[in-house]
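Exercise 7.
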Amino acid sequence: AVDKIRLIPQDFFAELCEQIIQHLNHKIPGINTAELCQRIQTSGVDINIGDLAKVANTLSFLFSTAARNKLSTEELVTALGSGVSPLPKHAVQVIRHVWNEQGKAIAVSEDARNTAAVGQFVDMKWKLGVAMSSDTCRSLKYPYVTVTLTVADPSGQITDKSFEMTIPQFKNFFRQFKEMASVLETV
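Solution. The predicted structure, written as tokens, is:
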């Protein structure tokens, strides 16, 4: 991850650190690495989304471990400098600044960590479609519902998960959501 951190310009690295801190503070559901990666690539840096996700995971682990151990800014910077492959100077400066400004606010309660371990639901979109025909069947006229769930995984990476359902499956899905809503209203 250190080699990839060297590639990331300081302003993008600072933005990534800020988003990670906000995610750890439960202010945003996750880090949109796809969008950030595209912006970094547009600036001329050759980095792929997998490498950026590794950097984000490493930084998330760094910040959450530092919060759990209640490290001061100087203790964190000292720990970063004593590693096998030290971070670039610009990265240490950004981490120092972000940790000094916002690091103390990271909520590290057991409940918050347990909740984050399963990921977080961000958004849901659905659309109704009709398959008119296919290679093997001239006339289908088969209605279906496509559902896209946006989810932030435990490390904060935002991903979309899509699936299709028949109308009876969607009606069952909808019924289950109504049951959940009625249970939540009693809480």
